[in-house]
Amino acid sequence: MTVLDWLLDSDPAIRWQVLRDLVHAPAEVVATERARVATEGWGARLLALQGEDGQWAGGACFPARSFNWRAENEGQPWTATLPTLQLLHDFGVDPRSEQVRRAVALTGGTIDVADLSPAIAAGANPG
Q1: What residue segments make up the domains of the chain, in order of their start?
Q2: pTM here?
Q3: Is residue 46 over pLDDT 50?
C-alpha cells in the first residue's frame, strides 16, 4: 500500500483534501467527497454532538459547566463551540450548513455566509 492509498483510505475530512491537493481530481469529485464530511466520519460525529441550543459543551468559548476545568478534570476548553467550529472548518464541512450557521450565530453574532470559513478560522465577528 502506498502513502497515497493509505490517505485515500481514510476519513472524508482527509480524503477530499488528498483528492484536491495530491490527486488533482476534478472539482466535481472533490466536492462530492467534501460533502460527505457532514454525514460520515469525524465531521458527522462532531455535528452529532451539537447541543439543542446550537452549542458544543454548552458554551461558546469554554464549556458551560466548568470554569475551573483543570482542578475539576473535566470540560476541556477545546470541547466548546468555537474550537469545535475550528475543527469543522479544518475538516471542510460546508459553512452554509444549518448546524454551523446556528452555532456561529451564538458565538459571534452575524457573519456573512460567504465569509463564514475565514471568520470561523479567526474567531472573528465581522458583523
Answers
A1: 1-38, 43-127
A2: 0.73
A3: yes
